[in-house]
Structures are given as C-alpha cells and as structure tokens.
Amino acid sequence: MSDSGFEQWWLASLGRTLVWARLRVLEAGTAEVFDSDGRIQAYPSEDDARSALLDAEFVAFDGLDEDDAAERGFVLGELAPPRATDDESLRAQMVQQLPSRH
C-alpha cells in the first residue's frame, strides 16, 4: 500500500453474490476506489469516495455486526476481504459467491 493514509474494504450483496470494493485514502487527502471490474476510480476526497460507495449500496465491512451479516446471508467470522499481492490478482477475487443455504 504505497502513498496511502489507510485502506478500508466495502461490500455489496446481490442475492448470494458479494461484490467487494477497496477504498484507499492517500496522504494528499484524495481517495481511490478499486472496484470489481479492476478499475481505480479517483475522488477528490474521502467523503466523495464514501458517498459514491454508499450511493452504489456498498457498506463498510469493518462497520458490519453479526446481525448485518446475517441479513446479507453470511456469518461475519467466516468472511474476509480478498487478499493478493497485486491488483490484477485481486480483481479475480472481487466478486464472490456465497455457498447455498439449505
């Protein structure tokens, strides 16, 4: 994570599909969002990036509790944001299918 103030993961759920987004706030105060298509969207501020994510119905992963997770069909402790050594490898993990519930 170069030139970054901090990184935060967001997710949206569409049925049994989870879509991840990575928010990075850069030292300059600008922000960027890495989306499920592998694009990096630049924003003039963290607030602008958060607003765009909220408008797209994403929620901050670190803000979820067990009840929020249950509403979305998963157990919070069984889910973690994608991890990879580079963005190209990460892109393949940005959309995940939840196992079917019986």
What does this structure look like?
The protein has 102 residues and is α+β, with helices and mostly antiparallel strands. It has one domain (4-75). Helices cover 22% and strands 33% of the residues. The chain has 3 helices and 6 strands, in the order ββββαβααβ. Strands 1, 2, 3, 4, 5 and 6 form a 6-stranded antiparallel β-sheet that branches. The N and C termini lie far apart (40 Å). The relative contact order is 0.22. The mean pLDDT is 91.
- Quaternary state reads single chain
Number of continuous helical runs: 3
- Low-confidence parts: none
Structural class: alpha+beta
* Count of β-strands: 6
Give the overall form: globular
Tell me the layout of helices and strands.
Blueprint: E1 4-14, E2 17-26, E3 31-34, E4 40-43, H1 46-55, E5 59-60, H2 66-72, H3 87-91, E6 95-97
Antiparallel strand pairs: 1-2, 1-5, 2-3, 2-6, 3-4
Question: Any key phrases for this structure?
Answer:
33% strand, 102 residues, globular, single chain, alpha+beta, six-stranded antiparallel sheet, 3 helices
Quick description:
The chain has helices at residues 46-55, 66-72, 87-91; strands at residues 4-14, 17-26, 31-34, 40-43, 59-60, 95-97.
